[in-house]
Design goal:
Blueprint: H1 3-23, E1 32-33, E2 51-52, E3 59-63, E4 68-72, H2 77-84, E5 89-91, H3 102-108, H4 115-118, E6 125-131, E7 137-140, H5 145-149, E8 159-169, E9 173-181, H6 184-197, E10 199-200, E11 203-204, E12 207-214, E13 217-227, H7 261-267, E14 270-274, H8 275-279, H9 298-303, H10 311-324, H11 326-334, E15 339-349, H12 353-363, E16 369-374, E17 393-403, H13 412-423, E18 427-428, H14 438-445, H15 447-457, H16 466-470
Parallel strand pairs: 1-2
Antiparallel strand pairs: 3-4, 4-8, 5-8, 6-7, 6-8, 9-13, 9-14, 10-11, 12-13, 12-16, 15-17, 15-18, 16-17
Helix pairs in contact: 12-13
Length: 474
């Protein structure tokens, strides 16, 4: 499709969006009518039609000269990477699940292994069009009140329909080192050193994340760009059973088949992946969550269709469980206490990471957990998610359930996590359940500023407020 044709199609899609918004009765919830979601909080049922976002799911243009891309708001990162990678480019931050959308990552925050040097996805947005509660398309740029308040607003200010973003060049292959730490304090010090220097043991680090498997068993995965052919990597430098007999050089690992990426972190010190497989290394097993469906069992894995080895397939299964209470019924039959779902991503300052992990082991006991260092890309701070410029944080992600009995509906574990995170000067993402009172919520997420901007762009208050979305589940 030519650039002009793509623009015309985009404008038609925007008109359909406008028409669908007009069709929603005043007072009814305004929601996107889309097939996938990466949210983990329940919502009140509604019979009102959703916003028609068909036609807003593509890439309008990739410019390899300026290293930018024009992307529609509902475009998934899977489709975005498919468009940019042939040019040797990727977004500055590529969240780890394929069906996260660009607009969703900007309004709801996103993170991945490049966040220790590239920040969060909204920091590489140069311009965006936002469909507001007033039914208007507003083009906004850094420094505008709408732009600066949009990250972490989760649709309470509107929805991005078009974004122009920065891209960065990447090679064809990624070399990995999995470095073990037995002490959380040493782990935190290593993270600080890598973030400040950009290297470890004299080797450049381009991607940085890790896994805490057990108390005293922590790993950092250090990713290095710079390889355009695997034959550049000598066999003796990488311990693997997958080698080519003719050249004596490494072949790339494949974690979309029988092998499971997170297990490899424990099993090997080094690895080599294509850039494409590196970007989606966590998606095949939704980190480690595919184990809940038996997919990590070798026999089940062979029989489970490969097209279903994706995070969105597992997410749909979670939806079925929520709908029919399958796990709760099985627990009741087995006499087990009721489960509380504890699915959260939190950020704590790197120097407080050991305290949080020690507390988490004692109070929650869920393992493994994901570790992803991040730092704002520049000096600019973002009011709706007020991380401090110049401070290194570590995202700790944990996704599972704990048996708590009759108190499960009150979320005692989630409430304890919220309290401890903020005692340590951290923040909690809002894609999952939250339990804050209004005053605490406004203090943590600058509710006063958010309300001012919302009144300006949603004067009739048609869009659900952030507090109502995140806490009241409306």
């Amino acid at each position: 499709m030519s650039r002009a044709s793509a623009r015309e199609a985009h404008e038609r899609a925007v008109q359909r969006l406008r028409a669908s918004y007009t069709a929603i009765p005043p007072g009814s919830p305004v929601r996107l009518a889309k097939k996938t979601s990466n949210l983990f909080r329940a919502r009140a049922a509604t019979t009102a039609p959703g916003l028609d976002v068909t036609g807003l799911t593509g890439v309008l243009e990739v410019d390899p000269v300026t290293r930018t891309a024009e992307v529609q708001g509902m475009c998934t990162y899977e489709d975005l990477v498919d468009a940019t990678l042939p040019h040797g480019l990727i977004p500055m931050v590529v969240p780890q699940l394929r069906t996260i959308t660009l607009g969703g990552a900007v309004t709801g925050l996103g993170i991945e292994a490049t966040s220790f040097r590239n920040g969060l996805p909204h920091e590489s947005v140069l311009e965006m069009d936002v469909f507001t509660g007033a039914g208007e398309i507003v083009t906004t740029r850094p420094g505008d009140d709408l732009f600066d308040t949009f990250p972490n607003s989760y649709g309470s200010l509107g929805y991005a329909t078009r974004l122009r973003i920065e891209l960065e060049p990447v090679p064809s292959y990624v070399a990995l080192r999995h470095v073990r730490f037995d002490d959380a304090g040493l782990l935190a010090k290593a993270i600080t050193t890598i973030v400040e220097s950009g290297e470890y043991d004299g080797v450049r680090v381009d991607g940085l994340d890790g896994v805490a498997f057990e108390p005293g068993e922590y790993y950092l995965t250090l990713a290095s760009w710079g390889l355009d052919t695997p034959s550049l990597v000598p066999r003796e430098d990488y311990s693997t059973t997958e080698t080519t007999e003719t050249t004596g050089h490494r072949e790339t690992s494949d974690y979309t088949g029988q092998q499971i990426f997170y297990r490899s972190v424990r099993a090997r010190e080094t690895d080599l992946l294509t850039m494409y497989d590196y970007l989606w290394r966590w998606d095949t097993d939704w980190f480690w969550c595919s184990g809940a469906f038996g997919v990590q069992h070798p026999t089940v894995r062979r029989l489970w269709p490969k097209r279903w080895r994706r995070s969105d397939a597992y997410h749909r299964l979670i939806g079925l469980d929520n709908r029919f209470d399958i796990v709760d019924r099985l627990d009741r039959r087995a006499g087990r206490p009721k489960r509380e779902r504890v699915i959260q991503d939190v950020e704590v300052p790197v120097e407080r990471l050991p305290e949080f992990l020690d507390w988490f082991d004692e109070a929650v006991g869920m393992r493994p957990v994901w570790l992803c260092p991040l730092r704002l890309r520049g000096d600019k701070e973002w009011s709706s998610y007020p991380l401090e410029a110049g401070t290194t944080y570590v995202n700790v992600g944990f996704w599972g359930t704990v048996h708590v009995g009759t108190q499960a509906p009150r979320g005692p574990t989630n409430r304890a996590v919220e309290a401890r995170v903020h005692e340590l000067g951290g923040h909690k993402s809002l894609y999952s359940e939250a339990f804050y009172d209004p005053e605490t919520f406004d203090r943590l997420y600058d509710g006063a500023n958010l309300a001012v901007v919302k009144r300006r762009y949603d004067p009739d208050d048609r869009l659900t407020s952030l507090y109502d979305k995140a806490v009241k589940k409306r």
